[in-house]
Amino acid sequence: MSFPKPFYRWRPHPWHGLTVGPEAPRLLNAYIEITPSDPVKYEIDKETGYLRVDRPQKTNSLPPALYGFVPRTWCGPRTAALAGAEIGDGDPLDICVLSERPITRAEVLLTARVVGVIRMIDRGEADDKLIAVLHNDPFYEGVEEVADLHPLLVGRLRHYFETYKLAPGEAPSVKADRIEGAASAHAVVKAALVDYEQEYGG
Fold first, then answer.
1. In this structure, is residue 8 part of a structural domain?
2. What gap in Å lies between CA 135 and CA 128, rounded to an integer?
3. Which of 55, 72, 130, 135 could be stapled to 111 by a disulfide with Cβ–Cβ 3.0 to 4.6 Å?
4. Dihedral, CA atoms, 139, 92, 202, 112, nearest 10 degrees?
5. What pTM, to 2 d.p., does this model score?
6. Does residue 11 form part of some domain?
7. Closest Cα partner for 128 from 167, 81, 172, 64?
8. DSSP collapsed to 3 states, the chain
């Protein structure tokens, strides 16, 4: 019996075992960790590749989009330099994906079209958030730039990341005041791909 190529006899690690996408840096694979209705923060377990419960959110803030990461990317020194930070957060590149139809389960893989980036600094570390749309979603057909999105959607994304770690009595630790277009976002992806290759190999 022959198997199609590529064929994985075992489940690949979502960060290291999947491809970056069909047309990087514009079209990327996004592995979704959190859905918009979920008040629990999940993160990929770097050792096993399974989702781990990171923490229940301290507030009622819910992500306004699908939230996950891009395989084979790493926020290292090149990514940090683009953001104006001394270091990156050491994680794969985060991505927010807008979909008109509700997608209510995590641990799914989708093709995302990158249209912008939120430049975020968290406790001095670069933690950029790509803004993308579901590539085959007719509602977002023709959207290629963050400026093509309704400002309210972009504002919700920015507000979420400015406040999702904020708890009563604590000072803000996150700065997310720069929203840039597709060209800047593509440059971030390219830097994170090089950072990954330098850290983990091709």
1. no
2. 21
3. 135
4. 0
5. 0.93
6. no
7. 81
8. CCCCCCCCCCCCCCCCCCCCCCECCCEEEEEEEECCCCCEEEEECCCCCCEEEEEECCCCCCCCCEEEECCCCCCCHHHHHHHCCCEECCCCCEEEEECCCCCCCCCCEEEEEEEEEEEEEECCEECCEEEEEECCCHHHCCCCCHHHCCHHHHHHHHHHHHHCCCCCCCCCCEEEEEEECHHHHHHHHHHHHHHHHHHHCC
Report the C-alpha gap between 21 and 130 in whole angstroms.
14
Per-residue pLDDT for the chain (202 aa), expressed as one digit of tens each?
Answer: 566 777 778 889 999 999 999 999 999 999 999 999 888 889 999 999 999 998 888 777 889 999 999 999 999 999 999 999 999 999 999 999 999 999 999 999 999 999 999 999 988 889 999 999 999 999 999 999 999 999 999 999 999 998 877 767 777 777 888 999 999 999 999 999 999 999 998 7
Find the CATH number of the domain harbouring 110: 3.90.80.10
User: Tokens representing 68?
Assistant: 């996950």
User: Is residue 3 situated within a structural domain?
Assistant: no
Q: How many domains does the chain have?
A: 1
* Token pair for 174: 């996150």
Domain that holds residue 33: 27-200
Nearest to 132 by CA among 39, 31, 61: 31
